[in-house]
Design goal:
Rossmann fold, alpha/beta, eight-stranded mixed sheet, Arc Repressor Mutant, subunit A, single chain, five-stranded parallel sheet, 405 residues, 13 strands, 2 domains, 20% strand
Length: 405
């Protein structure tokens, strides 16, 4: 059964039969392959014959012998129908050596409409920029949003519960589609996610970059996971590892963090000076592509919930096309400043507000921003809804499902 993901399909189908390569990029097992199949079904509904649709998954042993540009070119050429447009779907294209040369040749030599997926942003961007400048469109694919998760749960016949109960489950188990196909136990869920994590680390980082000090890489990953939502630097990681008698220089740490970003395991979030209106180059934060990565590797702890709430809101803003930053105003910090064309919004996230001091901190920082863009305080405890001096208070789950931003 294929559960529709209309947010992506509608965007991608806009570019059908245009002279652009459509690139779907995201962490492994987030649903890219399934989205390709959804696009194929849409094309069939529009009358495209099956023989004019070619699908290759280069993670499969079936195509193990087609791992160079020349072999791929000859394979595709032999399947084309003269005088007819062919639709090419190439899944995990980064497994093909010099794939960008083949794609460039397809576009030059044949009447084709091309869709590719990839799980390594750096590898793909470096190759694309050389051969396909101005002739491609990238679509970022994420694990399931909370809204998509609820659709999954409904389609697979899971017992219904309240939105807030479902959100608590989503917070712990994340959005990888594979973990929501059956009513798995937490242990089973994290076993699946650990497999995704391990295959990503090995295939897209260790193997591709020929990394020998795997233990060193894993310690950096776990440090980053344990400090999600906190500012830290390569220097702080280096000092931490030295305290464990494991020497590593800052440049190597930066290199590892960059590789984790390119494999979509981590997302880097820069700081933005709201008053000075400039991007700051220090004290960045990192967020994960899915909260289940943390819980599957470090285990669940109650004190991690606040960071995971931030993580989920951050990903939702990215899904909706926002550029997201950590806000700085004076000596204070705003959890997120999100911008999209002429739109902007500010978000503060707190698990609960039990004291006046906490309330003053969360609302006061937003009130200090002298503009009229929307401002939100998101929380998970019980509260009296509505606005406070123009600041909207919402449950995190309601914010994720809202269409107002």
């Amino acid at each position: 059964m294929i559960i529709p993901r209309p947010m992506y399909i509608e965007k991608i189908m806009t570019y059908v039969n245009t002279p652009f390569v459509k690139i779907l990029a995201g962490v492994r097992r987030c649903g890219k392959s399934t989205i390709l199949k959804m696009i194929i079904e849409e094309l069939k509904k529009r009358g495209v014959p099956e023989e004019r649709i070619l699908l290759y998954n280069f993670d499969s042993l079936q195509y193990e012998e087609i791992k160079t540009a020349n072999l791929l070119y000859n394979e595709i050429k032999s399947k084309l129908i003269p005088g007819e447009k062919t639709y090419l779907f190439l899944d995990e294209i980064q497994e093909v050596k010099s794939w960008e040369k083949a794609i460039n040749s397809f576009m030059t030599d044949f009447d084709v409409d091309i869709y590719v997926t990839g799980s390594n942003s750096r590898l793909m961007s470096s190759e694309i920029s050389t051969y396909l400048t101005g002739r491609y469109i990238t679509f970022r694919i994420f694990p399931l949003s909370f809204s998509e998760y609820l659709s999954f749960r409904n389609e697979y016949g899971h017992e219904e519960s309240s939105i807030y109960s479902e959100f608590a489950r989503y917070l712990r188990f994340g959005g990888f589609p594979a973990v929501h196909l059956q009513p798995y136990t937490p242990e089973e869920v994290y076993l699946i996610v650990r497999d995704i994590y391990n295959s990503t680390i090995f295939t897209d980082i260790v193997k591709r970059n020929q990394i020998r000090k795997i233990d060193q890489l894993e310690r950096i990953v776990k440090y980053a996971f344990d400090n999600i939502g906190r500012t830290f630097s390569a220097s702080s990681i280096s000092k931490y590892l030295k305290s464990e008698n494991r020497s590593i220089d800052n440049e190597t740490v930066y290199n590892y963090l960059s590789k984790l970003e390119s494999a979509f395991i981590l997302h880097r979030c820069s700081r933005y000076d709201i008053q000075g209106k400039e991007l700051l180059k220090t004290q960045e934060k990192f967020y994960m592509s899915d909260p289940a990565f943390r819980y599957s590797t470090l285990g669940y702890t109650p004190d991690s919930v606040s960071a995971m709430l931030e993580n989920i809101v951050y990903l939702e803003l990215l899904r909706r096309g926002y550029d997201v930053y950590i806000g700085k105003i004076g000596s204070f910090e705003i959890d997120f400043v999100a911008t999209k064309q002429e739109n902007k919004l500010y978000v503060q996230i707190t698990q609960k507000i039990e004291h006046d001091a906490t309330e003053e901190r969360e609302y006061g920082r937003l009130l200090s921003i002298a503009d009229n863009y929307p401002k939100y305080v998101l929380r998970t405890d019980e509260f009296a809804g509505g606005n406070f001096k123009g600041i909207k208070t919402m449950h995190v789950a309601d914010f994720l499902l809202s269409s107002e931003y």
